[in-house]
Specification:
globular, two-stranded antiparallel sheet, alpha+beta, three-stranded antiparallel β-sheet, 201 residues, Helix Hairpins
Length: 201
Amino acid sequence: MYVNQEVRRGLLGRMLTEILDTRVMVKKAMKEFPENKSLLKLLEARQLSLKFVANVTYGYTSASYSGRMPSTEIADSIVASGRETLERAIRFVNENPKWNARVVYGDTDSMFIQLKGRTRQEAFDIGYDISETVTRMNPRPVKLKFEKVYHPCFLVTKKRYVGASFETPNQAEPIFDAKGIETIRRDGIPAVQKIMETCIK
């Protein structure tokens, strides 16, 4: 059971809202200076730090012995609400004939949606429509943010994928984007990373 923020706004909620709003601001700044490599590196480190701080806040509430503010009820409700919201969104996207889309992967707070046979521009249009529709389905501040179109993409397993990513419809050249695979993992050697990246490209 949650108390409406009009009645009383919790400390944890206020703190996380500020952290996440700051992260959004930093990510917007990154898009304004794409050619300044040193500034991009600094801003990337900052937004990642803010993400980690927000993520470990959940861990703090779940740590019953070593945590400084243990509250397993909060931790359990975060997991349950997140799962419920994601499952409802996945069902809605899969069952909506308007988009003819299929969620191939959904985890924690994100969805990978396959749009077979569609152009990149159609993928952007449908992606924006899905994110706006799912956002309207949920109470504030829950928001589904449309991030990018991969064209093409390999989805290997959970949290392991690679593709040519486009963040805007008018982006001419794709960005080589890899998550969790050997090309970016730090436990390998440079030779393996370079060979794999070349093969994938």
